[in-house]
Write a structure and sequence with these properties.
Elements lengths: L28 H38 L1 H10 L2 E6 L6 E2 L5 E13 L8 H11 L3 H10 L9 E4 L4 H9 L7 E11 L6 H4 L2 E3 L2 H6 L10 E3 L2 H5 L1 H4 L4 E7 L5 E8 L6 E4 L3 H13 L4 E7 L5 E7 L13 H9 L21 H10 L9 E3 L2 E4 L2 E4 L7 E3 L1 H7 L2 H11 L1 H10 L21 H7 L8 H8 L9 H13 L2 E3 L4 E5 L5 E4 L4 E4 L4 H16 L18 E7 L22 E8 L6 E7 L5 H24 L36
Parallel strand pairs: 2-10
Antiparallel strand pairs: 1-8, 2-3, 3-4, 3-5, 6-7, 8-9, 10-18, 11-12, 11-23, 13-16, 14-15, 17-20, 18-19, 21-22, 22-23
Helix pairs in contact: 10-20, 12-14, 12-15, 13-19, 14-17
Length: 677
């Protein structure tokens, strides 16, 4: 039987189904997955590289485009150094254009620090050249820690020419050390008008925080007091810059183009140097503490504003020492106080014109009203004395002002009451600031029933006896010398209160005026012209009358009559000193001496107020100072008008005669017809 070679399908040999249809795959399945994974990794890596590239390009764009200018500056700073140039402060002149304060060049030694590392040999060389202890130099360097690095360290100030030369000779051994030229204040009249002018000092941290940091840096000098502070914006100017190319070692190579400083604006004051000198010299020569004010009655311009003792301005140049500062603080005459606006005193009898005007305006008295003065006035169970114990007899208004009769004004004040007295006090400017361009001005005190309720709530009741004291300028009354001068000027000009002015104009170095003075009226009395004339007549009689209390205020200029009022302000009432001679009373317990006046009597131009602390009597201590100021003022006017000097020698005043509230003066020769200016 034939055996067949065919096999049934089911009996065929086993084969891999993956080889279906005779197609053979190039890779196995596991190889394909691996490739996919590798591809993903490659793409991820390429993404990271691309992202890093983008970040780098963005950073380059930011650095080169956005901050390119800043980095250019930083790069330049490695080879370019700049130094600020202080601007000259504006000059201060008097009303006639005479220079009171200017500048001179001063040489300072500075360290231009590019790092905070100090070389020992560098420090030794510098200390030898400056003749300064190394520890002192190190302390100055430590003070600049925390300040911006571009600010130099000032190591020595206002050095001599010889030290400047030594710095330059040793330049090779003193890298980053330079000479800074800065303007320094020069006071051409010494301490004249020191409280007005003020002084400079190094800017404090608090001041720096408040001020424009683009203009001021640590170590800068700024106005600390007076007009130097109040007019800082005018006087300071704008700093300049010097640019210098330096090498890697910090040595200067060549100068580059810089920016010139802009000088500050000049100030021309209303003050007259000649009159100011007389006032301050008279106070100093007599060893007086006090104040003098002279004011133009029709404008408010201040011609004199003197406070004694003065500040020693030179002590503040370069910074005042602790010893000098303490000496001023401990001085019993208080030189740090500007007594013109900060000193507050009872006005004494200089207040009587206020009482007189209030009495006339309110109808309490008339020009012809007379009161009898027996030397005292009884009110309730108290006796109020007149300064003239023998009494003045029967007196009317004119005589009461001229002879300063206390009894007349006791009675007038009693009839008025304190609140009506307060009303007219305020109209004259008492109890409020004058608005003058001076620091720390005080307002004084105008007592009233409401004022006492607020001030003394435990003893709020106003006692009528207190009114009598107020009526003669005692009691709670307090005024400043400037306020009293403003009152006197208002009486003289017919009732206009002007804001006192110190600055005539502010102008640029080329002469262009930035600001000029214009009179500013604060208040005008209405319908009081006749009454004010009556008061002026009484004040003229006080200086020129036979029994006037202000006769020592007469001027030497022919034809000029002065109207004035003396005043004695009681400091304290102490029984143990009542029976002593005045010269035996301790200085601090003596009365203050006032005198206030105007001239010419017929057409007033100038008012002068003088206060001498503890000077006892206005007629003897204060009136002569006012007379000298007005004599100089009117003599100069005569010279300007080229009027020949026709003054003839007359009878001299008895130097032993009394001319104040404490005595009767001898008669004076007639001054003739006042000159018209």
């Amino acid at each position: 039987m034939r055996r067949s070679n065919r096999r049934r399908p089911g009996s065929l040999p086993h084969r891999d189904n993956s080889y279906d249809e005779g197609v053979v795959p190039l890779m196995a399945p596991q190889d394909s997955d691996e490739l996919k994974t590798q591809t993903q990794k490659g793409l991820y890596a390429m993404g990271c590289i691309l992202a890093a590239f983008i970040v780098i390009m963005a950073r380059l764009y930011f650095l080169q485009i956005k901050q390119g200018t800043d980095y250019d500056k930083l790069a330049d700073s490695n080879r370019v150094r700049y130094l600020e140039i202080m601007a000259p402060r504006g000059n201060i002149l008097d009303r006639k254009g005479r220079e009171m304060v200017t500048n001179r060049p001063s040489f300072n030694v500075i360290w231009l620090r590019t790092s905070n590392r100090l070389d020992e040999e560098w420090l030794k060389t510098l200390s030898r050249v400056l003749d300064e202890d190394p520890g002192v130099l190190l302390e100055k360097i430590r003070k600049m820690v925390g300040q911006p690095g571009h600010l130099p360290v000032r190591l020595a100030e206002d050095i001599s020419w010889d030290k400047v030369r030594q710095i330059e000779v040793n330049k090779m051994y003193l890298p980053e050390v330079s000479i800074e030229v800065v303007p320094l204040r020069v006071y051409h009249y010494g301490d004249l008008a020191s409280h007005l002018i003020g002084y400079l000092g190094e800017i404090s941290k608090d001041e720096l925080d408040r001020m424009d940091k683009s203009r001021y840096h640590g170590g800068d000098l700024i106005g600390k007091a007076g007009l130097e502070r109040l007019r800082e914006d005018d006087l300071s100017g704008i700093k300049g810059r010097d640019y210098m190319e330096v090498n890697a070692l910090g040595f200067e190579q060549k100068p580059l183009k810089g920016e010139a400083p802009v000088p500050g604006r000049n100030l021309q004051l209303t003050i007259d140097v000649d009159l100011q000198k007389i006032a301050e010299e008279e106070l100093a020569n007599n060893k007086f503490a006090g104040a003098v004010v002279a004011i133009e009655v029709n404008t408010g311009r201040l011609l004199v504003s003197a406070s004694s003792p003065p500040l020693h301005l030179q002590d503040f140049v370069g910074g005042i020492s602790k010893a000098n500062w303490k000496a001023m603080l401990d001085n019993p005459l208080h030189p740090l106080v500007n007594k013109v606006v900060q000193g507050q005193y009872p006005p004494g009898s200089t207040f009587k014109p206020v009482t007189a005007l209030a009495g006339l305006a309110e109808g309490v008295i008339t020009p012809d009203t007379t009161f009898f003065c027996p030397g005292f006035h009884r009110f309730g169970n108290r006796t109020y004395r007149c300064w003239r114990h023998a009494g003045h007899g029967s007196v009317n208004l004119k005589r009461a002002v001229a002879e300063s009769c206390d009894v007349y004004f006791y009675i007038t004040g009693q009839k008025l009451g304190v609140d009506r007295l307060a009303k007219y006090s305020r109209l004259f400017g008492f109890g409020r600031l004058t608005g003058v361009e001076m620091e720390h001005e005080k307002a004084g005190i105008v007592p009233s029933t409401e004022w006492k309720r607020q001030r003394y709530p435990r003893d709020a009741k106003w006692h009528e006896g207190e009114t009598l004291s107020v009526a003669i300028g005692q009691g709670y009354n307090l005024v400043t010398p400037l306020q009293l001068a403003v009152m006197t000027a208002a009486i003289a000009n017919g009732g206009t209160i002007y804001r006192p002015a110190l600055v005539e104009k502010a102008f640029y170095p080329d002469g262009t005026v930035a600001q000029s003075f214009q009179p500013e009226v604060l208040h005008r009395f209405t319908n009081q012209g006749r009454n004010l004339k009556l008061i002026r007549d009484g004040m003229v009689e006080a200086v020129n009358g036979r029994r006037g209390t202000g006769r020592r205020a007469q001027v030497e200029t022919q034809g000029i009559q002065v109207g004035g009022k003396t005043g004695t302000a009681q400091v304290v009432r102490i029984k143990q000193y009542q029976h002593l001679k005045e010269q035996d009373i301790p200085y601090k317990y003596r009365d203050h001496a006032w005198f206030t006046c105007f001239a010419p009597a017929s057409n007033p131009e100038i008012a002068v107020t003088v206060l001498v602390e503890h000077g006892l009597h206005g007629g003897s201590a204060s009136a002569p100072i006012a007379a000298k100021i007005m004599t100089r003022y009117f003599n100069e006017k005569l010279e300007q008008l080229q009027v020949p000097d026709v003054l003839e020698d007359g009878d001299e005043e008895d130097e032993h005669g009394h001319d104040d509230e404490n005595g009767v003066a001898p008669a004076a020769p007639s001054m003739g017809t006042p000159l018209q200016f």
